[in-house]
Amino acid sequence: MSALRAFSSLKGAAARQAPLRFQAARSYASQSKTLKERLAEIIPEKQAEVKEFKKAYGNKVLGEVTVDQAYGGMRGIKGLVWEGSVLDAEEGIRFRGLSIPECQKALPAATEGGEPLPEALFWLLVTGEVPSQEQVKGLSAEWAARSAIPEFVEELIDRCPKTLHPMSQFSLAVNALQHDSIFAKAYTEGIHKSQYWDPTFEDTMNLIAKLPNIAGRIYRNVYKDGKVAAIDADKDYSYNFSKVLGFEGNSDFVELMRLYLTIHSDHEGGNVSAHTTHLVGSALSDPYLSFAAGLNGLAGPLHGLANQEVLRWTLKLKDSIGIDASEEQIKKYLWDTLNGGQVVPGYGHAVLRKTDPRYTAQREFALKHLPEDPLFGLVSKLYHIIPGVLTEHGKTKNPWPNVDAHSGVLLQYYGLTEQDYYTVLFGVSRALGVTSQLILDRALGMPLERPKSYSTAHLKKMFGAN
Questions:
Q1: What was the pLDDT predicted at 30?
Q2: Which of 56, 114, 171, 387 has a beta carbon 3.0–4.6 Å from 399's, enabling a disulfide?
Q3: Measured CA distances, 359 to 47, 238, 293, 367, 400 (Å)
Q4: pLDDT tens across 74-125, in order?
Q5: Where does the record place the catalytic residues (predicted)?
Q6: Is 458 among the catalytic positions?
Q7: Phi, psi of 151 (to 5 degrees)
């Protein structure tokens, strides 16, 4: 029995959440195939599975669409296929059928830490399998070997004014990497569509590998001395990302990055950054152009900016009533906020109806590494107080905290205090999820996305409205 099957026998819920064979995570700990070699074996199996499934169930109805949904941002419409993760209202996100706690137990970790390595999660997202430690080490080395960015991209970043938002610089640099797109070149030369996945894979590997150098250069230029440390070929992805930021000397921060990059990587396909990347990719734009578009969506206040907005609100609360504020003072502040027509950021979720497991994972990290931090103490108080107030207020379907309610406090504790940069961290992480799906989109021949739209006048005519 494989390691994961033994694990799954104890965690039967994971298997029940992954009815398709390709979604069920499997361990190949005894194999030493590279990710691309294993993927090449899996693709024909997955293509056959999807073809058979569509033939048998293609006419089945997933749900209905209401006028409210059409006007409400398509919220809740079931109309996308996303292999990497599924969000359950009660259990939270599952990566290929595995919950976050199960991923923390099953995925390989660094020898000096306990948090799962993002490389292991990427392997899981692409293949549906839990890799061996040897395979993860090989992927770390491959990303390090691909990490150098072209000189003209370095110059492009260096010439950006410090006043240009870090996310704008990030998107600009990713777009510039398209200069060397293997997919774009192969498409121009006439590659057969059955092989689209191969150059998409190569572009994705190069893109992910180069993100730490890009993100690190932006951080060092805008906030520090402009000097960027070299990637260490013998270290993992999170260590190297921490190194280019200038935090490699703090092993706890490196562990935080491993956790952060893993849990922020993927969250179904309907969120703005994921859907945008998928949509642009459906036009056969290469991974660089597709991911850059997703980054522009992630930069919005209603998406990736949320974590820094929560931190700013928390710091404002601290400055207003004190970090040692009593429960009564906090409740009054909350009611003043709500009665003033404002929301309490970091609480509530469009799908979840319980505490976000990503929040819980960060809280457990804080309890282990910074239990006496005063700001974490305040966040803990809020965790115990806010849900009750929001429930009494009665206008929030889910009064529990989401992922954004905690991440900023952890980053502040380790000295990464530049809040405008937080979405760049999110972007590096989100690349793992959205680009893994791009590979699968091309492998499965997913078509150009083109939903039907109506005008208000046409809708009124359809329903006989005056």
A1: 44
A2: 387
A3: 36, 20, 27, 12, 10
A4: 988 889 999 999 998 888 899 999 999 999 999 999 988 899 999 999 999 9
A5: 303, 349, 404
A6: no
A7: -60, -35
